Structures are given as C-alpha cells and as structure tokens.
Amino acid sequence: MAIVKANAYGHGAVETAQALARQGIRRFAVASLDEGIALRQAGLSASIVVLGAIFEEQVSDLIAHRLTPVVSDERILPALAKAAHSHPTPYPVHIKVETGMGRLGFSPEELLTLLDNPLLHSPLQVEGMMTHLADADGKDSTVTERQLGEFRAALEQITQRGRTLPLVHAANSAAIVRFPDAHFSLVRPGIMLYGYHTLPATVPAPDLKPVLSLRTTIAQLRTIPQGGTVSYNGTFVATRPTRIAVLPIGYADGYSRQLSHRGSVLIQGHRTPIVGLVCMDMTMVDVTDIAQLQVGETVTLIGQQGQESIWADEVAGWIGTIPYEVLCGIGSRVPRLYEPA
Q: Which of 2, 30, 160, 216 is the most buried (most CB within 10 A)?
C-alpha cells in the first residue's frame, strides 16, 4: 500500500501514484478526503485508503469517489452505513487499533465490542485491520515489540471469534526493514519510496536512492563592498568585496528561513554558502570564489552536481528536523518536472 499523502511527500501525488500504478501497485493511501478525490479525478482506479479522520459531512463524497475509510471512531459508522446503503456490495472499511501511538484508533478492549456492531456486517464490511507504530525507527525496539504484541493479540481474538480479515497492515518504512514479522498481508512504505530512511545507525539500511532534486537558477549577480550587508536586518556583513548570486526561491516555496547562514547550495559542483536571511521569495549565496558565472546558471538546492550532493536528510540536519518535513514543505508554486527513469 503505497503512501502518497502530503502530495506524495512533496513529489506530486498524481504523477507519483500513476508511476507506481504502472509498476503494478494496486493499493494506495492518503491522509485526507481531498487527497483521495484528487487521485480519482486524475483517473486512478486502484484502491485508495484514507488514513486520517473522516467527518460526517464528508461521508457522501467519500462513498461517491469509492474511497476506503479507516474507521477510528464508532460514531462515524451510522453515516457511513447510510451513505453505503445503496452500494451493490458491502462497502469496505479498515479498522484502526490503537496500540501505543496515542492518536486515532480503538483500544484492543473496544475492538471486540465494535466488531459486534451489525453495521459492520452489512452494509459495511471490515476489509482491513491496522495499527500505527510509534517508534519503529527508535534506537530501542521495546516499544515496537510491545505494540506488535498487542496488535497480534487483538488479531488472535478476532480470529477465535470466527472473523476473517482479508488485509492486515502495520509496517511503515522503518518497520518494513527492521521488523519482518510486522509485514502481515500489506506493508505501508512512505518515506522509503522517495529514497530516505530514519533508521538508527545500528540497523543496516537498504540502498535507497532519492528521486527528487530541487533546482533553481541564478536571477542576478552583484558585488557588494567590504562592510556591505545582504538581506533583511543586515545579518550578513561582508568582510571582503563579495559577489552575491540572488536565487528566486525562498520560504514561500518551502526553502526554510532557518537555513539562513546555515545552508549551502551547489553551483558548478561547488558548495556555496547561504548569506543573509532567506526571504519569502529569494535566497542569496556567496559566489566570490567561483570565477565564471552567468545569470541563468543552474543551482541545486537538493540533489547532485558533479561529485557533490546535498540531499534532504542533510538539509534537515542543518535545521534540526527530519527529511519528511523538508520534502513535504516544498511549496505548490514550485513546478514539478518529471523525467523518465
């Protein structure tokens, strides 16, 4: 079940899902109703599970677009059943079991009572059961083992009551690698689809290759004198005559303001430091030590140039976050261009 929520982690949900579908992937998951509808409107016919909360006023649209809800609250069942009543076959739903994430889901104790609800026999049908692992990428496996133990115990109780569950899923990207016994009948790769992982150093990592590069071009070149300043509040003061390249990308595009005075970009295969504050629409870099430069030259913010590379996990390290946030933050006004593999 390929996770393409958050615009496929910033990569473009429609194009990513279409590419995965061409590789034979038949199940996808998103976080919200709108994300699912966008995939349907783009022509994706595969199963699409909505992992996030569903509200009563959204149910009719959910059914109309053949999206599969994850039920985390019993109060939504009457609305789902009413909307699905005219459906020719029992309408599939997935049930979420809360085993330690502390977010959405039924406790294992609530689960058995829930499954006695007649609405889950018709017009609804439990197609899948899931949980979400809170610490699969943590240094200690204890929390994950405990969660999986609770999940298995709940599944065993369901089996003992004569219920069959076509689909069972728990493993996110880290658990796919680290906990093979958590694979069940489906796995839910997210960040690893896009070439990253957050596994601890003690766990052998798979050979993942990032699929996204973030590039811009030089919009202007200018020289400022010694003592001159760059950007708002004059936080950069030149200690020598300094050549500045102005890049037409900023925090409104998802290039974090926290990268001010911390980050670097690649120009002609050289790491080039950001100077001054990253602005809403522009970023400035010091190119004094690069001799031959022209306006329009390609600048790589994430990706590879020559022998040098800067990937999203390194950018994340500069600002104390994770590659998920860096990728998901790339704004909607940044064009996505897709190259054949």
A: 30
- Among 82, 139, 196, 232, the active-site one is 232
State yes or no: is 9 an active-site residue.
Answer: no
Upstream peptide bond of 123 is cis (omega within 30 degrees of 0): yes
Q: For residues 26 and 48, what is the distance between their CA atoms, to the nearest angstrom?
A: 9
pTM (2 d.p.): 0.94
Residue type (1 letter), 52? G
Our answer to whether residue 196 is catalytic in this structure is no
CA 36 to CA 42: how far, in whole Å? 10
State both tokens at 207.
């050979």
| Residue pLDDT tens, the chain, 341 long | 999 999 999 999 999 999 999 999 999 999 999 999 999 999 999 999 999 999 999 999 999 999 999 999 999 999 999 999 988 899 999 999 999 999 999 999 999 899 999 999 889 999 999 999 999 999 999 999 999 999 999 999 999 988 899 999 999 999 999 999 999 999 999 999 999 999 999 999 999 999 999 999 999 999 999 999 999 999 999 999 999 999 999 999 999 999 999 999 999 999 999 999 999 999 999 999 998 999 999 999 999 999 999 999 999 999 999 999 999 999 999 999 999 87
Q: What are the structural domains, with CATH classification, of the chain? A: 2-194 (3.20.20.10), 214-328 (2.40.37.10)
